[in-house]
Amino acid sequence: MRGKMKSKKFVLFLTLCIGLALLVVGADARRRRRGRIKRAKVTKSQLIEDALKVYVPPGDFDKYYLFLSGGHSGQIYVYGVPSMRHIRTIPVFSRYSATGWGYEYYSRKMMGPRFTWGDIHHPSLSETNGDYDGRWLFVNDNAHNRLARINLDDFKVHQILGPVPNVMGDHASVYVTPNTEYAHMASRFSVPIPTEVDLKNHTYKRGTYAPIEEYKTKYKGVLTFIHIDPKTGYMDLEKSFQILMPPWDFDLADAGKGPSYGWSFFTCYNSEAEFIKGKPLEVVASQRDKDYIVAVNWKKAEQAVKEGKYTVIGGMKVIDPTKVKGLVYAMPTKKSPHGVDVTPDGRYIVGNGKLAPVTVVHSFEKMIEAIKTGKIVREDMGIPVLDENVTKVAEVPVGLGPLHTVFDDKGYAYTSLFVESAVAKWGWKDGLKDQWKMVDKVPIQYNIGHIAAPHGDTVKPRGEWVFALNKLSKGTHLKVGPDQPESCQLIDISGPKMRIIYQAWPEPEPHYAMCIDAKLVEPHVFEVYTKETNPEKEYAVYDPKDARVVRKDDHTVEVFACEIRSSIWPNVVEVNEGDTVIFHLTNIETMRDEIHGFGICGYDICGVPTPGETQTYVFKADVPGVWPFYCVNFCSALHQEMQGYLLVKPKKK
């Protein structure tokens, strides 16, 4: 017992020493960075050149779309690159009155009655043969374990899936496979399972209880592979599966490509598999010098499901890798790895250990060699651990606090350094004279988290730019009080040296971004709904003379309405107090950008049907009186005249 106490005290002392060292070195790095920024002399001609690189004249278009996650705002922000102009906000898991999302019936139904927000971390564009194809954008909800699909033909959400059973804290997500066969989900927070869900109402039925003292034995991690229909993008739980794991905390993921196709890779921290009441996890989970990158053969797991080698837990098909061998392997990686990134050729797996000053590079070829030759050093809670001396090919000394890595088209990688507030450039490609060497570093403002680049996680990176998604802005903007914006910096990587040439301040809180060539998206996009593409066409009214109010029964009224410059028809709707009102409203404009809105005073109804679109609003007429409705989106010179009345007759006493 005394020996254990000494060991624990030593671990705590060592952790504190490491923390203090990082603070001291980090402070020194910040001083050096400020010195570099202060000393950097930028000529007027250089400033003009930088400005011209990002200037997109009125009427011209950006080359790339940039999709920024909105974190706990529950939204996605769309920017143009290189101008860094904010073009659109796409609401997903949170209500957004600017478009009526979460107010009209079908978005409210998708969101469910229980959750009013979500936590979007990692958007993922659909892929074909390992490159973006511009069809869909998938996003995760770290808070409530959901996925959503945004169709890039109309830039709107068409499916919200979940909450998904058994997984908790869906952080290692979405990171689709190279032909969009699967989306990843993984447990950041291990919990006892099952967690039972009500998919119809998008909520939980019940979880499973176990005391925290039984964390190592009763709490489970889960790796989830959500099946995606290759033609429609529909996510189907019936065709999905899970892999049961120890109570490790899974952080991020990436899918193999090329030679590593059919494999997926997940980082984890807390491989100690401990959670102790009253002790900080940062101490408990830092006892080991290394955690893991977990490699999963999802093609083999897919076959195991077909062969019935699973157990149904919480309604999900769950494979136990301790019983179905050859599915899962662990590769030791320094320390508390955050991001895992597969190189464009699929040959190397890069681990970014946030408590180590290096990125660790594993070879997929050597990983397979280790598996075939039995180079397994031990089993950890039933998971075979490969010999890192076989799998590891390099440790690249990039700097303090590496988190994520993206790639360009010239064989170089770019790693974000949170503690050092910098981006490091290093060579990875075979045959490159700079392979496994850092060749450049640029300071950023401040504490960079994720990093992104055009097609930077695909088989065909485009180069040109890197985006630093920074957690702190620290007064690099006009003062706005204590609630500070995020910082996003645009880095020019077209030359041998990186140059920061633009800074933007997106809404909270961009964790990750996807950057795609606009030419791949634009062929899919339409700007006016037709009678065929209108998602609620069965309720549409395309001529004012067909507008009508229909009493369905003693307590239900259905309204079939339309709006066009500058009227709403019918302009008077009469109901009784207590009626349920189902109000279908079609914007019958046929010209793009002629958007109308709809609001009812006193009834918290807000909608913004776009040209050709029908929206439905369902509410209880529970307050008698006369309530104006009107167009909330300025549309024409006679916009003010676009109004009507909801008359709610009081009940007879």
Written description of the protein model:
The structure is a single chain. The protein is mainly β. It has three domains: 1-31; 44-490 and 501-524, Methylamine Dehydrogenase, Chain H (7 Propeller); 537-649, Immunoglobulin-like. The protein contains nine helices and 43 strands. The strands form eleven sheets. It has a five-stranded mixed β-sheet, covered by helices on one side. Strands 34, 35, 36, 38 and 41 form a five-stranded mixed β-sheet that branches. A five-stranded mixed β-sheet has the order 37-43-42-39-40, with no helix packed on it. Strand 31 (487-492) and strand 32 form a beta hairpin.
Concise synopsis of the structure shown:
The protein has 653 residues and is mainly beta. The chain has nine helices and 43 strands.
Q: Which bin fits the share of residues in helices?
A: 10-25%
Count of DSSP helices? 9
Structural class: mainly beta
Lateral strand order in the biggest sheet: 8-11-12-17-16
- How many domains comprise the coordinates? 3
Considering the chains and any ligands shown, give keywords for the structure:
653 residues; mainly beta; Methylamine Dehydrogenase, Chain H; Immunoglobulin-like; five-stranded mixed β-sheet; 43 strands; 14% helix; disordered N terminus
Topology readout:
Blueprint: H1 2-39, H2 44-54, E1 64-69, E2 75-81, E3 85-91, H3 105-111, E4 124-128, E5 131-141, E6 146-151, E7 156-161, E8 182-186, E9 196-198, E10 203-206, H4 215-218, E11 221-228, E12 235-245, E13 249-255, E14 263-269, H5 281-284, E15 291-297, H6 298-306, E16 311-313, E17 316-319, E18 328-333, E19 337-342, E20 348-353, E21 359-363, H7 364-372, E22 376-380, E23 383-386, H8 388-391, E24 392-396, E25 402-407, E26 412-417, E27 422-427, E28 438-443, E29 448-452, E30 465-470, E31 487-492, E32 499-504, E33 513-517, H9 518-521, E34 548-553, E35 556-564, E36 567-569, E37 572-576, E38 580-587, E39 598-600, E40 605-607, E41 614-620, E42 625-630, E43 643-649
Parallel strand pairs: 12-17, 35-38, 37-43
Antiparallel strand pairs: 1-2, 1-33, 2-3, 4-5, 5-6, 6-7, 8-11, 9-10, 11-12, 13-14, 14-15, 15-18, 16-17, 19-20, 20-21, 21-24, 22-23, 25-26, 26-27, 27-28, 29-30, 30-31, 31-32, 34-35, 35-36, 38-41, 39-40, 39-42, 42-43
